[in-house]
C-alpha cells in the first residue's frame, strides 16, 4: 500500500486537518505533468503528449531523464485494473523498441525547439549517445484499487520497471495543493529484465567545442578572414569569450547545419580591436569589406559588445553545402564544450578530420 498522505493547517496552537478532494479533471493533472514533470520527484523533459502509437492508441506522456532513459506516464482515468496495467505494458513494449532517431523524431514534433537545445536547457548538458537505454513505466492516478496495486507489485517482483504514483488534491481557503506518494519507493525497484544497458553522458575530450554562428553575421566573412564572433548580450558574449587558444571548434549555422572546423588562434577580443591577416599584414577587421553586420549600437558593457575569435580553418564549406543530420548536437549557446560522441564521429567523417588535433 502507498504511504497515506495527510496534511494539516496550523491555526495558532490547533492543527486543522485538510480534507482531500477529487481532482477537477484528470486532464488537468495531465497538464500539470506536461508543464512540470518534476512533480514526479525527478528531473524529466517531456518529449511527447498524446503520442500516437502504430496501433492507433495514444500514450499520455512520454518523457526522458538526464541519462537518456525514457519514461512512459499513463493516467489511470476510468480504466479497470487489468486495462490500465495492460495498457501501460503495451505502450512500454512499443517504446522499448524506439531507436535514437525515433526518439528525436517524436521529440522534435512536440518541442518548440531542437531536441538537443531542450535537453541542454533542462539537464545542463548534451544528451548521451545512447537514448532509451532503460525504460520506466508509471501509472499516474489519484487513487488505485487493491487489485491494481497487487498487479503492479507482482510485476515489479519480476523486474518489470513499473510503478504507480498518486496525487492527492486539496483545496483550502481558495488555495490548491497537490501531494504526491509512490506505491513503491523508487530505490526498491528491481533491475529490469526488459531494459537495455545504461549509457551515461560521455566525458569531454578537452579539445572540441561547438560554436553557433548566425544572425546578421556573414559566414563568407568568417571563412575569408578567419574568425567567428558573437555578442549583443551576456548570454552570447560570455560563452564565445570562454573559447581558449588551441580549441578545435565546429561551427554551426542555426537552422542550416555545420559549415566548418578550425583551431582557435588566440583569445576573443572586441570587434573594434580585432585584427586579421591580409596579404601577410595584420589589419583591423572592422576596416575590411565585410558583408555581415557586427556592430551593436549603444553597447556600453563587455557583455553588450561583439567579440571576435581568430581561427585557422581546417576545413570549411559554403553555407549552401552545410551538413545537417537528425541527432546532431545544436543549441543556442554561442560556444560550449562538444562532448556528444555521435556528433563528433559524424562531423569527423564528413569534414575528413582525424585524431585529436591538427
Notes on the protein architecture:
The chain is α+β, with helices and mostly antiparallel strands. It has 2 domains: 7-188, Trna Endonuclease, Chain: A, domain 1; 208-350, ph1033 like fold (Roll), CATH 3.10.590. 23% of the residues lie in helices and 30% in strands. The chain is built from 8 helices and 18 strands. The strands form 4 sheets. Strands 3, 4, 5, 6, 7, 8 and 9 form a 7-stranded mixed beta sheet that branches. Strands 10, 11, 12, 13, 14, 17 and 18 form a 7-stranded mixed beta sheet that branches. A two-stranded antiparallel sheet has the order 1-2. The chain is elongated, with a radius of gyration of 26 Å. It starts with 6 loop residues before the first strand and ends in an 8-residue tail after the last helix.
Amino acid at each position: 500500500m502507498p504511504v497515506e498522505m495527510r496534511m494539516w493547517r496550523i491555526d495558532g496552537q490547533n492543527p486543522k486537518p485538510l480534507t482531500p478532494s477529487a481532482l477537477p479533471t484528470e486532464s488537468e493533472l495531465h497538464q500539470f505533468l506536461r508543464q512540470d514533470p518534476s512533480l514526479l520527484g525527478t528531473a524529466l523533459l517531456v518529449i511527447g503528449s498524446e503520442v500516437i502509437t502504430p496501433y492507433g492508441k495514444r500514450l499520455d506522456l512520454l518523457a526522458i531523464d538526464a541519462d537518456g532513459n525514457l519514461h512512459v506516464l499513463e493516467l489511470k482515468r476510468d480504466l479497470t485494473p487489468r486495462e490500465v496495467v495492460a495498457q501501460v505494458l503495451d505502450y512500454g513494449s512499443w517504446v522499448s523498441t524506439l531507436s535514437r532517431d525515433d526518439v528525436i523524431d517524436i521529440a522534435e514534433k512536440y518541442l518548440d525547439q531542437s531536441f538537443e537545445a531542450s535537453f541542454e536547457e533542462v539537464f545542463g548538458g548534451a544528451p548521451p549517445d545512447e537514448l532509451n537505454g532503460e525504460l520506466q513505466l508509471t501509472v499516474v492516478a489519484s487513487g488505485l484499487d487493491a487489485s491494481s496495486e497487487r498487479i503492479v507489485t507482482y510485476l515489479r517482483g519480476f523486474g518489470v520497471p513499473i510503478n504507480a504514483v498518486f496525487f492527492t488534491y486539496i483545496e483550502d481557503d481558495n488555495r490548491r495543493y497537490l501531494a504526491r506518494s509512490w506505491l513503491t519507493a523508487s530505490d526498491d525497484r528491481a533491475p529490469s529484465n526488459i531494459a537495455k544497458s545504461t549509457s551515461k553522458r560521455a566525458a569531454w575530450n578537452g579539445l572540441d567545442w561547438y560554436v553557433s554562428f548566425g544572425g546578421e553575421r556573414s559566414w563568407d566573412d568568417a571563412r575569408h578572414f578567419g574568425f567567428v564572433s558573437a555578442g549583443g548580450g551576456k548570454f552570447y558574449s560570455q560563452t564565445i569569450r570562454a573559447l581558449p587558444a588551441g580549441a578545435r571548434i565546429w561551427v554551426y549555422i542555426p537552422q542550416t547545419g555545420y559549415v566548418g572546423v578550425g583551431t582557435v588562434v588566440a583569445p576573443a577580443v572586441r570587434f573594434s580591436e580585432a585584427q586579421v591577416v591580409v596579404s601577410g599584414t595584420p589589419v583591423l577587421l572592422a576596416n575590411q569589406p565585410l558583408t555581415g553586420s557586427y556592430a551593436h549600437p549603444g553597447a556600453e558593457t563587455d557583455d553588450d559588445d561583439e567579440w571576435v575569435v581568430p581561427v585557422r580553418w581546417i576545413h570549411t564549406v559554403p553555407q549552401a553545402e552545410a551538413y545537417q543530420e537528425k541527432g546532431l548536437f545544436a543549441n543556442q549557446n554561442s560556444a560550449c564544450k562538444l562532448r556528444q560522441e555521435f556528433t563528433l564521429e559524424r562531423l569527423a567523417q564528413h569534414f575528413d578530420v582525424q585524431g585529436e588535433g591538427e
